[in-house]
Amino acid sequence: MTDNNQPNHHWKTLDRDLGRIAALESATSYVSKPMVGLGISLVFVVVASLIATLLFGEENTRWIVVLAAAVGAYMALNIGANDVANNMGPAVGAKALTMGGAILIAAIFESAGALLAGGDVVSTISKGIVSPESVSGPGIFIWAMMAALLSSALWINLATWVGAPVSTTHSIVGGVMGAGIAAAGFGAVNWPTMGSIAASWVISPILGGVIAAAFLAFIKKFIIYQDDKIAAARRWVPVLVAIMAGAFASYLSLKGLSKLVKIEMGNALLIGLGVAVLSYFLSAPVIKRKSIGLENRNRSLKVLFGLPLVISAALLSFAHGANDVANAVGPLAAIVHAAETGGEFAGKVHIPLWVMVIGAFGISVGLVLFGPKLIRMVGSQITKLNPMRAYCVALSAAITVIVASWLGLPVSSTHIAVGGVFGVGFFREWHAERRARQFAGQRGPGKTRAPEERKRRKLVRRTHFMTILAAWVITVPASAVLSAVVFFGLEAAFG
């Protein structure tokens, strides 16, 4: 009997051993996964330093530029990990894109935006907040910019680890301000510029939220709540696509073509209008053809908004790369310029191509390695998104940027996008409460939900709302204080 059962025992033992091995492999993979990302990040930082070593010609100050290149690469990685989630989060949350597809599209368009259209905003970050002439000597200015880069990168890294999407623009601005104050006092800071940035803290998320809520209300009234939803979609979806195309055309005319030709706001709006009309006539037959055979249900509408949402996410990534690459390479460009010229800032800061490449590819590498965490946060953990809601967020981001450019306000893409998500969520709450009150009489007095149940059914996660709001409020002062501390440390060590 023992011999007959022995093979069975062997198989059971083998299964248990294989199970233990599989569990061990799974645990090893789970533990080592973060280490792989850290390892690749370290390699990128080393490569950036080697590029600076090979391409920077001044022998005496080369080691400073190499160090700055390493810190700038670290900053770019953090921007990719934190900030790009705002562009792709809604599309992923709405299931219009997979996580892998979103990362691939964002990496391509972020790099393209940074390299093709990113140079015009670097000078503001590098010398628009703190005047180099107010700092006593190029060495002090270099250490101030180095402190700004390192402190803002550390702050963004902490925010990413916590799971809070913060403004990288405000992080670097706070870092530059804090280092400038530490180096030369409060008089070194351009306070009117800082006042404009502070105004954008409030204006950009509110404006983004209001515009997103307004478009969602429009979609609900003229498409979702219509008896024939498909016919309404055929009429209005091309209009929404045209508005999106026109907004991005105006934005890219203002920002993306600035290296080639200077386009004023009026001409940019005319270009946007032309693109909008063309987009309407191109998209109308496509939407009509795609809607054939669809059921008269809300689920069918998601199909019609899927492709426009993907295109808008790609364009947002391009615009983000063009705008926010300055946060990584602005202080780095200023350090390189100061090291080359000995602190002469009479003209415009020249941005070497290798500096832009470090910023562009650093953002993409950071996105690929560490971006999914905050993409999930923005896309699905604040409020539930579908393609229509996500499209409203993307549309509001594009329009808000145009309005802010017209007003001359420096805005944060993070604040606009997250503000749009909150705007959509809070509008849904208000709308749901309104409809519940309208139908309360039909359910009878005994069917009214208790206050605790109504609180549980809130459509916006209050914990995420408070966490993000707190992170926004303290970003500039926290990065400023950290930058001042880092500056004094660097000056004590190398000054």
Polypeptide structure, described:
The protein is mainly α. The chain has one domain (37-494). It has helices at 2-55, 62-82, 85-93, 99-117, 122-128, 138-162, 168-184, 191-224, 229-255, 265-290, 298-341, 353-370, 372-381, 387-407, 413-438, 440-443, 451-456, 462-494. It is globular, with a radius of gyration of 26 Å. It starts with a helix and ends with a helix. The relative contact order is 0.18.
Concise description?
By secondary structure, the chain is mostly helical.
Helix-and-strand structural type: mainly alpha
Cα distance spanning the termini: 85 Å
Count of DSSP E strands?
0
Which value, in Å, is the CA radius of gyration?
26 Å
Order of helices and strands: HHHHHHHHHHHHHHHHHH
How would you sum up the global shape?
globular
DSSP strand content: under 5%
Mean pLDDT comes to 78
Low-confidence stretches: none
Fraction of residues in H or I helices? over 70%
Number of helices: 18
